[in-house]
Every structure is written in structure tokens, then in C-alpha cells.
Amino acid sequence: MSTVQEEALLETRIADKAGVKVEDVRDVFAAYGLPLVISPARPRSLRVHRLRVAGERTGDVEPGPFDTTLSFSAGLTALVASNFRGKTTMRGTGASRHWACG
Q1: What is the DSSP string of 25-94?
Q2: What are phi and psi of 69, to 5 degrees?
Q3: Cβ(88)–Cβ(94) below 8 Å
Q4: What is the pLDDT of residue 102?
Q5: How far apart are CA 42 and CA 51, in angstroms?
Q6: Residues 6 or more apart from 56 whose CB is under 8 A from it?
Q7: Per residue in 15-56, pLDDT tens?
């Protein structure tokens, strides 16, 4: 897609969202001297300090409700359990860098 096509698509998207004509979008950008470009997203890191996990355990090993808060320090975190259950679920939360060992 060419730069001209990208600008036209962006103008149209802005106009549709704002409920105005494309010409109005162009006029506002021109009046304030703003370039009509799509900026790539800036990568940002996320630091998780604490994670609360609550729910209901199922199965034969200690079934019932649970409510646990995990605190994470900087660096690597290891989740270790002998029952081979639940660690993959924790990995899906994206909490810090971690290992899950069963």
C-alpha cells in the first residue's frame, strides 16, 4: 500500500469514527500542522510486582476454593509444584519471566 493510500485510509477511518467529512479531517490536521501518518506502536515493558489468583480447584488433589497472592521480585521467577497442575495456567498470565516445573 502506498503512502497516499495509507493517508486516505487513515483520513477515512478518522472521519468515520468522528462522524465528520474527510475534508474536515484534512482541514484540522492542516490547521495544526500535524502529519497524517500512522505511527508504529512503541514497545513497552510490563513489570508485575504482585499477582492475586483465586478460584475453585477441581479434581482429586485438594479440591475447593483458593485465594493466593504471588509476589515477584525483579528477574526470573520459577513456579514449581509436585502435582503437575496449574503452572501452565499461570504462564498464560504473562507474569514476569518464569519457568514452570512439575
Answers
A1: HHHHHHHTT----PPPPPP------EEEEEEEE-SSSS-EEEEEEEE--SSEEEEE-SS--SHHHHHTTT
A2: -115, 125
A3: no
A4: 42
A5: 25
A6: 63, 64, 65, 66
A7: 999 999 999 999 999 999 988 887 787 888 878 888 888 888
* pLDDT > 70 fraction of the chain, expressed in percent and rounded: 77
pTM for this entry: 0.39
Using DSSP's 3-state secondary structure scheme, residue 102 falls into coil
Grid cell 475534508 in the structure block, residue: 23
Gyration radius of the chain's alpha carbons: 24
SS3 category, 5: helix
**∠16-17-20 over CA atoms, to 5°?**
55
- Choose among 75, 81, 70: nearest CA to 97: 75
